[in-house]
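Encode chain A's predicted structure.
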Amino acid sequence: YLEEPCILAAGETLARLFPFTDLACAALLLSALGVVAAGSRGTPDLDQEDSACGAVAVTLLTPSPGCPRTERALREVAWMVLPTHACISPNVPMANYGDDKKFLYAGDVACAAGGGLIVDWDVLSKRQQNQLESLLQGSAVRDSVAVWSQRHRGDRVSKGSPLDTLVISMACQEDELFEDSAAPTESRRVKMMLQRHIVHAARANSEAPATLSEEGMAMIRKYFMLARTAATGSPATTFTTLRTIVRTAISSAVFHKRWAAVPYPDCALAIALADQSLHSRGGCAVLGCWGRNTPPTLEEALQQAEAVCTREYLQPF
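Encoded structure for chain A:
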């Protein structure tokens, strides 16, 4: 994977360096590539959902509120794969902003433009959360900033994260201490490999924008209908979620320098990420691999996503 990495190998490489699952690492990589590719093409046309590559937000569920090692790991991943990033600090005196509290974090978001914004929702007050959420709702911000956040897995994530956010469980436990899991030379080697590949992939996509193949669109539509059937009434199965799946699949195609997202691994990966997000929000997931004590590997999740979405009928789990 050193010269032309695939998303599976890249996710497994980051998972060996950080306390995240390979599925979470793949989500972070595609989120980073989405914002870099969108920046290289300019403002995407949101009316053409199946042809726009844009930023996708990722929320990691932590074993305890305000987990500092998760924020540290996210910062190191951002250092590896993003051109710039900023962190939201809870130590902002809101009283100093008077009636202009809507601009509380405007400077941090502006600094993160074209890169990533790292947020720990658990350490922010309710008022700070509301101000930041209202600021991130603008379409220009959503397409120019990759929001990477963490939230305690015991919270009601369905009410705390926008529907276009991928909610992924992370691997580390409460008794694990995050340390430098790789030597500086290893971190620099992975950083150079991933950054070079992301820049080249984004440049190639700016010349020939990736789209969604007919087979891939059929696979995604089938999953979306299965998800709406399995999670009847869940707000997480909206067309906003569908756009997120499409964007994730196209980002995977861009990562592999393809002109169109194919069913495997592009659409299968997007479906696996969306399904774990649906499961994390408390919904009835389509795939039957998220309730196990041992989380599935990235390849196992992709294989099951492809198998389920190519069957004629949904088999209940």
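The longest helix spans residues 184-207.
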